[in-house]
Amino acid sequence: MIINPNVLRIRDYAIRLNNTLNTTTRSNSMLTVEYTNLLKEIVKHPTNGFLIKHQYVDNSGFKNKGHRHACNVEFLKNSKEVIDLRNEIIEKINTLYPKTKILRKYIIMNDRVTIDYVKQKKGYSLANKIGIFFQKLHDNIKKPFWE
């Protein structure tokens, strides 16, 4: 099996970010560097980047992430560099996937596709897909995409 080198690089950044988020000994500058490296790769390869970020950072398996993890995440949300990169990602997704971005988000966030495994087709009919689209469209009016 041949693995795309971009996927390996993004996976390495995601694993390093996850380790940095869950430790108390790293500095905030190191945390920002790790997260900006991951976001820069997501700008280049949005679909692979979000699949890997969701699998290795968001659903990392740490059930009790603790106080330090929450503090680190809050610090990253308020960082100027991170905000700029997130806006760049949102613009790129809106230009690349104007019609399918909501369905892509649904598939990634509900673990229908991971980077190593594709679940069996659930049997969505056209009516189900349209229902998911309008439900997520209504939800996205309240909050920005990919947050």
What is the gyration radius calculated from CA atoms?
Answer: 16 Å
Order of helices and strands: HHHHHHH
Strand content: under 5%
State mean pLDDT (0 to 100 scale). 79
Distance separating the two termini: 33 Å
- Residue share in helices? 55-70%
> What's the domain count?
1
Shape: globular
Poorly predicted runs: none
Q: How many runs of DSSP E, i.e. beta strands?
A: 0
* Quaternary organization: single chain
The major pleated sheet works out as: none
Structural class: mainly alpha
- Counting DSSP H or I runs of 4 or more residues, the number of helices is 7
Task: Offer a few descriptive terms.
7 helices, mainly alpha
How would you portray this structure in words?
- The protein has one domain (5-142).
- The chain is mostly helical and 147 residues long.
- The longest helix has 17 residues, at 5-21.
- The chain has helices at residues 5-21, 28-44, 46-58, 66-77, 80-96, 101-109, 126-142.
Summary, kept brief:
The protein has 147 residues and is mainly α.
Strand and helix map with partners:
Blueprint: H1 5-21, H2 28-44, H3 46-58, H4 66-77, H5 80-96, H6 101-109, H7 126-142
Helix pairs in contact: 1-2, 1-3, 2-3, 2-5
